[in-house]
Amino acid sequence: xxxxxxxxxxxxxxxxxxxxxxxxxxxxxxxxxxxxxxxxxxxxxxxxxxxxxxxxxxxxxxxxxxxxxxxxxxxxxxxxxxxxxxxxxxxxxxxxxxxxxxxxxxxxxxxxxxxxxxxxxxxxxxxxxxxxxxxxxxxxxxxxxxxxxxxxxxxxxxxxxxxxxxxxxxxxxxxxxxxxxxxxxxxxxxxxxxxxxxxxxxxxxxxxxxxxxxxxxxxxxxxxxxxxxxxxxxxxxxxxxxxxxxxxxxxxxxxxxxxxxxxxxxxxxxxxxxxxxxxxxxxxxxxxxxxxxxxxxxxxxxxxxxxxxxxxxxxxxxxxxxxxxxxxx
Amino acid sequence: xxxxxxxxxxxxxxxxxxxxxxxxxxxxxxxxxxxxxxxxxxxxxxxxxxxxxxxxxxxxxxxxxxxxxxxxxxxxxxxxxxxxxxxxxxxxxxxxxxxxxxxxxxxxxxxxxxxxxxxxxxxxxxxxxxxxxxxxxxxxxxxxxxxxxxxxxxxxxxxxxxxxxxxxxxxxxxxxxxxxxxxxxxxxxxxxxxxxxxxxxxxxxxxxxxxxxxxxxxxxxxxxxxxxxxxxxxxxxxxxxxxxxxxxxxxxxxxxxxxxxxxx
Lengths: 329, 264
Prior knowledge:
The structure holds two protein chains of two kinds.
Chain A: H1 3-6, H2 15-24, H3 28-42, H4 49-78, E1 79-82, E2 85-88, H5 93-100, H6 102-135, H7 138-153, H8 156-167, H9 172-179, H10 192-217, H11 220-228, H12 233-244, H13 246-261, H14 265-270, H15 278-288, H16 292-320, H17 322-325
Antiparallel strand pairs in A: 1-2
Chain B: H1 7-31, H2 48-55, H3 57-90, H4 96-108, H5 111-125, H6 130-155, H7 159-167, H8 172-201, H9 206-209, H10 217-227, H11 232-255
């Protein structure tokens, strides 16, 4: 028996049949695109092809991302402005100012506080949602996933406006509270609470998704064993699900911390003029006061905070709990 | 296995989901209120605020500009990102980790910082080409999404199918167009949609690089919120929410839950 008897060899395909087949389905553009891709793909034989493919992107990001960011860090260390006059030369003056001035230091502390509180509340709300996704049926999982992701697709300005209409003095929350018999409902708009609520709202999916992934990887037999051995639902959560899902939580929380520390639009719209964060301070220093070196220093500090949170949450936490979580992978 | 979720948990989840949806629903209610200011619950019924928004030339100009910008950014991101994803997944490149780190770092550095750094650079270079600046700024942020989504689908390509096609005598370009392309198409489409959304919704980069003639929708919305209080803002917000809802439905229809990739 020859090979051809075993394998039913179809006639060799030609590029023409590919294009003709595509256009007969009405997708002429698709046919052209596939021919282009084909031509590109047939070039992928040389030794440096991999680098050639990656090079444009790497070059683009080196010039338009790495270079500007490094230039900015450099500026924050080599110039400072005194009464609007820029003085060049190595200096730590810009950073000293952030910590020496009571006003700036308070903004820094407020930023860290809101970022931490957002992470905490997001983690609290994320657990029930993540458990529902990982352990509920497919319908529940779908419903929860779509609902919590929806705010991400709604523009940040619109979202903040939505909260404004709720937290307003004549807004929906006040109306609901009055119905419930609260005579003098608190006005949350233009307070840190409004900023906190809106940040938790939109950054929630960044904790829920990795957390749901981590909980989904936990072996159900471990939970069942705990239940059979007499553990209550709550102690199963506390002693099985919580420790085994910590890596997922760490990923999510570090993301939420970074995102809320750098939030700009939400605090501007909901926090009013009384509770600016570092983002607002950067904007003021650069666009209003034209103090580029100081703006650059705050920006650098923001990058440092984000990197530090990544390091703390991901490296330390995952290493410390590696022993506990070994079973979850 | 449905019984593993307790009824109490379902109630808690229901309440949280209601809170999550509230700020997206309340503007819809406000937008039909027949009052010259925002008040809850809405009074009367009118669609005049929608008419006012749709007739507003500034709103229209912003919307068209945002569409144009997002389309250009998506095209550039795909042109750069798709080959890059192919290079990263199909070849063993020394220094791959460093390359990946560079590609993903625009997601780590705060957008507002990336924006101000670019503004400083453009000022240094003496650039006045606003559209070009905005395209560059948005592309920096959209590239990671495109590369991640395309790489993910390239990694899922079944190599056995390629081998089978080659054994059966298909030349490489036929393998590419008839075997690989159908498998990566969803990933490329997803990357394109993500990059369109990210660009269309961007505020923290545009706020530094835009000018009066190139004024994307989010910036326009912000100025409207700052200066007026009637329900026409609620009408714009509602239109944006409908637009997002449409996107959710399209993405759901086309990719199922791969929408979750946005957040992971």
